[in-house]
Design goal:
Peroxisomal Thiolase, Chain A, domain 1, 10-stranded mixed β-sheet, globular, 2 domains, alpha/beta
């Protein structure tokens, strides 16, 4: 059984290039229309480390060149991660030098070695620690929380920084017949966690598992574009999310009308399906995918971070995320 702990501060970051549906259809040349995107995905805009000019000119035919372009544009998974981490640290008044452990994911790192966590620690001026990467794609937030919940008390430093970051638009095929450009955005999220200090949220990880039989259902190799078995992954995601919500509700003896829910921000239409399956109150479902696209592991925690100031003490939250692997995880939070 994982031990509950506290999230003291949360932060997020998005790159500067805003891409709406009209631009993707009219300028980039995606054949599917904004109306199709609204009805099938419910996403209005997203943000990219790539410039608009680059997308129009190249359609991102070469993902390796996209990495070179993003570096020249001054935005990478590391710069986004550091910006999100600074916001999280500032929100709770914790200095970087107080962080004893950084746990990070980056699905598609620009630098394969060393790990993303050490680059983040270096940029923030964080000292030595057992900093490490822990990547389970879009479910990485749940994996990070489960890892901390499984630590014994002696293994906990005073403060831990967890970070989720990714730049999927560098791996999207923007050719006319593809529609992945409507789905993906880039971004990062970060959390400052502690076992010893009370925070804004008390978190209890409850579920984390993987199904290696689905390892080929979502994949990106070292030099090419994102690919997934969309229909299969969609069905799996909806079913697993419903199961996780039911498992967490049963474990904590919760009623749907009393809690807030937040899921992986894959697309809004999928979230509507989950809400319908469980008869969840729509006004208590937390979402941001409409305004920033699917930013992978950073999506769910960024949605919560952006909504946190509107929640009050005692509010209860059930979270569930899924990712490549296939992997899934969820749990319970309470506002303090």
């Amino acid at each position: 059984m994982s031990v509950p702990f506290n999230i003291l501060g949360m932060g997020w970051a998005l790159p500067k290039t805003e891409i709406d549906n009209d631009f993707l259809h009219k300028d980039v040349g995606l054949k599917r229309t904004p109306d199709w995107c609204a009805s099938r995905l419910g996403i209005q805009k997203r943000y990219s480390v790539l410039s608009k000019e680059y997308l129009v000119k190249t359609h991102n035919k070469n993902p390796i060149q996209a990495i070179v372009h993003a570096r020249a544009n001054g935005e990478t998974p590391i710069t986004l991660a550091v910006a999100a981490a600074r916001k999280a640290l500032s929100s709770c008044g914790v200095a970087p030098k107080s962080i004893g452990l950084v746990v990070s994911n980056c699905d598609l790192p620009f630098d394969l070695v060393p790990g993303t966590a050490n680059y983040i620690a270096k940029a923030l001026g964080i000292g030595p620690g057992p900093h490490c990467d822990m990547n389970t794609a879009c479910s990485s937030f749940a994996r990070h929380m489960m890892h901390l919940g499984d630590l014994n008390e002696k293994a906990w430093p005073e403060f831990v920084l967890t970070v989720q970051t990714g730049c999927y638009t560098t791996r999207v095929d923007y050719s006319p017949d593809n529609f992945d450009g409507y789905i993906w955005g880039d971004g990062a999220s970060a959390q400052v966690c502690s076992l010893k200090h009370k925070g804004r949220l008390k978190i209890e990880p409850i579920v984390f598992a993987t199904a290696p039989s689905g390892a080929d259902d979502v994949k990106v190799d070292a030099a090419s574009h994102f690919w997934q078995d969309g229909a299969k992954v969609r069905e799996f995601s909806i079913r697993r999310t419903v199961e996780m919500f039911e498992a967490v509700a049963a474990a904590k003896k919760l009623f749907a009308e009393d809690v807030y829910t937040v899921t992986h921000q894959a697309n809004f239409i999928m979230q509507e399906s989950i809400i319908g399956h469980l008869n969840l109150p729509r006004e208590r479902h937390i979402s941001n995918v409409q305004a920033q696209g699917n930013i992978a592991a950073a999506g769910m925690p960024s949605a919560l971070a952006q909504r946190l100031d509107t929640l009050k003490r005692g509010d209860q939250i059930v979270y569930a995320v899924l990712g490549a692997g296939l992997a899934w995880g969820g749990g319970y939070m309470e506002v303090q």
